[in-house]
Fold:
Amino acid sequence: MGLADQPLEIKIGYLRQAPSRIRISLIDVPAANDGLAGAQLAVEDDNATGRFLNQRYTLVEKLVGEGDDPVAAMNALADQGASFIVTGLDADRLLKVADAGQARGETLINVSALDERLREQDCRSNVIHVAPTRSMLADALAQYLIWKKWGKWMLLVGSHENDALFAEALRHAATRFGAKIVEERVFKDSGGARRTDSGVAEIQRQMPVVTQGAPEHDVLVAADESEVFAGYLPYRTWNARPVAGSAGLMPTTWNAAFDQWGAVQLQNRFTKTFQRPMTALDMQAWTAVRMIGEAAVRAGSGEPGKMLAYIKGPDFSVAAFKGQKLTLRDWNLQLRQPILLFDGRNTVSVSPQEGFLHQVSALDTLGLDRPETKCKLK
Structure:
């Protein structure tokens, strides 16, 4: 085989931190390869196409521990030839890596950080976002609740920083779509362990009291990203009310029961390969790696500059089993995508809901729109 026949080698980095294993339900504790498995399956899919075009894709992974320097890990991936790095990092680590990576010409694709600031005041021109923002999730939920005419919400907020950020997104969504928050309460994390022999009895006594005496409301909306209380709310509220947000009806990019638009084919392949269901993080990582493969095919090149120009250009789209092609918001590099509403067993609905109109794309009714953005890409 001559040099000209050698396949074009495209290395994709994956820089991640171990997922938190703190979950209210044992069923929800993430696998050690949460996210990574999705990226691995996407590399297989990229290679299935790449074989015909003499391209070969390889995933190079680095796990960043609690005290590790994420910039050193990014540099190690760059040294191995990865110009595109999928990141499963928190916001602070991601920004450090983005700023250090700019000098090296690295493009990062964020698959886990939901923080609005990464697409707003802290946006970077070398960071593309597949993970949705909290406002996209909140807007998706709000549209459905308004469609159901459940316009009166009681909001219960956890006492951690991420809970407050999700609560802020829910308040913004309520204002945007015409819901009314009739009362807001904070659930203080006292740090007590409920996974004890008497835990169920304790929860059964405690949860109704948390929601007692609330004004008339249609739905209890919980902001509890920290997994402290929301999972205990369904069927335990003082009044018989549905629960939504961080428990009950939850907005997400993917769930293991989703079976529309050919998704069941992807679900089956994933389960067969990894012996577990596909999570939202798996799907976000899968989408990121497929975007890179799509760029190499469409640009007809493995040259990082040409691939990035395609992704950022007007012709870019990626198919991800969501009923429509996903495109990129050019003002903050956020991937537009439908959001699923999941009750723990079934997909209840998919937002944007019918009737919520937009002059450019109905998907732009989810999350901060161009006129609202503070992003100045640099």
